[in-house]
Amino acid sequence: xxxxxxxxxxxxxxxxxxxxxxxxxxxxxxxxxxxxxxxxxxxxxxxxxxxxxxxxxxxxxxxxxxxxxxxxxxxxxxxxxxxxxxxxxxxxxxxxxxxxxxxxxxxxxxxxxxxxxxxxxxxxxxxxxxxxxxxxxxxxxxxxxxxxxxxxxxxxxxxxxxxxxxxxxxxxxxxxxxxxxxxxxxxxxxxxxxxxxxxxxxxxxxxxxxxxxxxxxxxxxxxxxxxxxxxxxxxxxxxxxxxxxxxxxxx
Length: 251
Description:
The protein is an alpha+beta fold and 251 residues long. The chain has 2 domains: 10-103, Helix Hairpins (Orthogonal Bundle), CATH 1.10.287; 111-249, Heat Shock Protein 90 (2-Layer Sandwich), CATH 3.30.565.
């Protein structure tokens, strides 16, 4: 009996040691993955910033070589030169702003607000007539950060509009309801849908200056939602559309 007790004690100690090691490994792995994610993001930022720098350099050099104060069209050329540079500077500025917004998530300032009303205000900035709003109740009270709630809605709707670029009879439906102490926000579109191989990457931060946007909207929404201990999920069918579902505790 004593031997059995000793064996159990040894097993328990071994188990505890294994759990401790697993926990340390998990923490190390999570930290490593975060660091790797930031390294990848830093590479993308550097790449996107370098893209406009090359045409800017060429533009300046070309203008420098060809500058002639007596040219009757010199004012037009200066305007064109300035316009090109300003466009490239704006591109770099948008990259910096997107990265800054993503990296430095503002502190939550919770206040009691009517979610149905705030979502309506968030949608007021969009002029597209194919965006419909369906609040299940006129008043859905929750303690949330107003700015962050608006950011969630605008990013999801912007994402939806980008999925509708080549679609006829465009449609985006936004609905808000409450259930079991949670606020539920759904943004659904009838767009092109998400490819199977891209579904796992939807919430991965990607920097791109292409027409699809900065690629940080959805990761930012995920960060905000998870800071509230909420969840964001989606369903998508090719050429049918995508629906994002946000669940956030009311308190």
